[in-house]
Amino acid sequence: MGKFIELVKRDLALAFRQGMDSLMVVAFFIIAVVLFPFGVGPEPSTLAKIAGGTIWVAALLSSMLSLERLFQTDHDDGSLELLALAPVPLEITVLAKVVAHWLTTGLPLIVTAPLLAVLMQLPSEGFLVLIAALLLGTPTLSLIGAVGAALILGSRRGGVLLSLLVLPLYIPILIFGVSAVDAAIFDQSVRPHLVFLAALLVGALALTPWAAAAGLRQALE
Amino acid sequence: MHRFANPTRFLKIAAAVQPWMAGLTIILFGTGLYMAFFTAPPDYQQGESIRIMYVHVPAAWMGMFCYAAMAVASAVALIWKHPLADVAAKATAPVGAAFTFLSLATGSLWGKPMWGTWWVWDARLTSMLILLFLYIGYMALQGAFDDRTRGAKASAVLALVGAVNLPIIKFSVDWWNTLHQTSSFMKQGGPSMPPEMWIPAVVMAVAFKTYYVWVLLVRIRQELTANKVRILRLKQVHGG
Amino acid sequence: MSQFLDFHFNGDNLVCVRSERTVFRGLTFTVPAGGALTLVGPNGSGKSSLLRMMAGLLQPASGSMTWDGEDALNDMDVHGARLHYVGHHDAVKPVLTAAENIGFWARLRGGGDDTIQGALDVFDIKHLYDVPGRFLSAGQKRRVNLARIIAAPAPLWLLDEPTTALDKATIKRLEAAIQRHRDGGGMVVLSTHADVDTPGSQTLNLANFACSAPLDEHVMV
């Protein structure tokens, strides 16, 4: 556990000193959502209808932005080899890096989301559920993304390829995330939607570190 | 099992089986298409357009079947490092993608007379569309590395991740679909279908299967030959 | 006075396949406690591959490696803990100071920060203690990377071209460090183009294991 925290602390230190990454992700998130009123028109009723969906889609895309670098820099400078040889299971190392990734991208997105909800005229009943759904959903995005990030190491065209691999796998989270917000607005039970999001998170926690670690070992061969 | 692990023996068997598969495929397709077009009755609601079903449904089945086959082959390749499993998975992907595309195209053609539009976000069609994305991602990853063995291994992991995800995607799309209530043209089927309808459907499904086996054998043999050429080239470069 | 227990590290009949090419085969080696093994051979003969194989990063296509008579790669976490690997890259993070770089890897191996000063002193870079990695020259980065393996002791050192970018004086220091490590019962395997003076070292010429015969059936596929 001490070593797990050590790994998380290192990635956080790297992220903060390298600076801008989190801010850029948040900026992209805001811009992506702000584009929609220009696309569909500023009628409050139209915006309210698509608010949950646009915020979720933008969150999906933004959390993917920094994924490519999740293992890439460590792979390029030789750190990944040493991490694989450290007396810590590689699955745990993956998990630590995912936690750091979520803290530096997922969490800032969630903090920004209410602001965007206001801009998009999301009915106030949806606010809390949007936050809850993002809290349950964004860690799963980071976990699934880690598998893709591990698999593309050393490939040509990393970034575009990553989105091609990861986005289809994000669809269930998008569906349950948006349906939770919609349910809250239409005064239906939000529980089943959130339960599915939680189930996806638990499943991803159990399975994705193995797949990502397998991908990393292949990349190091 | 390791009797077939030997590529030389496999090639011998494949060469013997391949013409039979080709012949069987042609006969089954001939029979199936004849029945679908001429002996099967038109639907009382959908009329003649029901005949698209005889291609659409088997193609959709094959799209899913090929992904399952690919995942199994990938698992075998990863766990037992079976050299033919990699080749089989690689050879299956484009065939499966083609079937999936065919099911989407025929679904779209079927949709036009039914709904007056080329595309409806029907649960089945949407799932097939996502399946097509998974195939494309798999093939893109496979071709993205200079080292072919790395491409094969990475895409094998992706195939397994996709196979675990497919039921979840299917479930979530169905969930999404019931929330938004679109109609489906696939309400019939099952035991209520008369034999004049399900027999041609089954014949077509078997024809698609034998076609897959045939193409798979051709592609595996091609792949093995290409491997030999590449290894000879490597020997030239390294003088070994 | 022996720092490490009296272990020996063996490889038996190893075959290495890289990108569908058999690099070497039938390779056998023994490193006793306090022993050193120098790998020589032309480019592409598999010196780096053999070191990666010894580290467990690369799976042998066939053959086995044993540590004190037991399968060495059985538990990768155990194997990783007993070795230090120095590859082509120095794994020095540009935004972390030399001390932070070394300290992270030491803590990951259960060490503390108390050994950092001494490790830096071995390669005469005490003055770089709080200098961020981005200001270091190639030679200084290499010295930080070598100091890393001093900071947290492990019995087996795998050094791939450790003298790259090092000046004569530092090579002398490396030789002294290797000698101290061996005196304590440690083992060293290194590949080198420059001369590293390791008294009593065995030499393994990888050209002797090159694959000249027709390729194996399983490679041929």
UniProtKB/TrEMBL annotation, chain A:
InterPro entries listed in its UniProt record: Cyt_c_biogenesis_CcmB, Cyt_c_CcmB_bac
Q: Name one GO cellular component term.
A: plasma membrane
Q: Where are the transmembrane segments?
A: 21-40, 46-67, 99-120, 126-153, 160-181, 193-216
In Gene Ontology terms, what is a biological process of this protein?
cytochrome c biosynthetic process
For this UniProt record, give its keywords in alphabetical order, as a comma-separated list: Cell inner membrane, Cell membrane, Cytochrome c-type biogenesis, Membrane, Transmembrane, Transmembrane helix, Transport
Q: Where in the cell is it found?
A: Cell inner membrane
Pfam families, per database record: CcmB
Give a yes or no for keyword Cell inner membrane in this entry: yes
Q: What is its main location?
A: membrane
Under Gene Ontology molecular function, one entry of this record is: heme transmembrane transporter activity
Q: How does it sit in the membrane?
A: Multi-pass membrane protein
The job of this chain, per UniProt, is described as: Required for the export of heme to the periplasm for the biogenesis of c-type cytochromes.
Family membership, please give it.
Belongs to the CcmB/CycW/HelB family.
Name of the protein described by the UniProt record: Heme exporter protein B
From TrEMBL, chain B:
Location in the cell reads:
Cell inner membrane; Membrane
The protein's name in its UniProt record: Heme exporter protein C
Q: Which is one Pfam family of this protein?
A: Cytochrom_C_asm
Family to which the UniProt record says this protein belongs? Belongs to the CcmC/CycZ/HelC family.
Residues crossing the lipid bilayer are 20-40, 60-80, 92-111, 123-145, 157-177, 197-218
Topologically, how does it sit relative to the membrane?
Multi-pass membrane protein
- Give the protein's function: Required for the export of heme to the periplasm for the biogenesis of c-type cytochromes.
Question: Which cellular component terms (GO) are annotated to the entry?
Answer: plasma membrane
What's the superkingdom here? Bacteria
Give all residue intervals belonging to the Cytochrome c assembly protein domain: 19-180
GN (gene name): ccmC
MF-aspect GO terms: heme binding; heme transmembrane transporter activity
One of its GO biological process terms is:
cytochrome complex assembly
Keywords from the UniProt entry: Cell inner membrane, Cell membrane, Cytochrome c-type biogenesis, Membrane, Transmembrane, Transmembrane helix, Transport
UniProtKB/TrEMBL annotation, chain C:
User: Per the record's keyword annotation, is Translocase included, yes or no?
Assistant: yes
Gene Ontology BP, a term: cytochrome complex assembly
Which keywords appear in this protein's UniProt record, sorted alphabetically? ATP-binding, Cytochrome c-type biogenesis, Membrane, Nucleotide-binding, Translocase, Transport
- Highest rank taxon of the organism: Bacteria
Entry-linked InterPro entries: AAA+_ATPase, ABC_transporter-like_ATP-bd, ABC_transporter-like_CS, ABC_transptr_haem_export_CcmA, P-loop_NTPase
Q: Where is the ABC transporter domain?
A: 9-218
Q: Which SUPFAM superfamilies match?
A: P-loop containing nucleoside triphosphate hydrolases
**GO terms, molecular function:** ATP binding; ATP hydrolysis activity; transmembrane transporter activity
Concerning PANTHER family, the annotation shows:
ABC TRANSPORTER I FAMILY MEMBER 1
Q: What protein does this entry describe?
A: Heme ABC exporter, ATP-binding protein CcmA
Species name: Magnetovibrio blakemorei
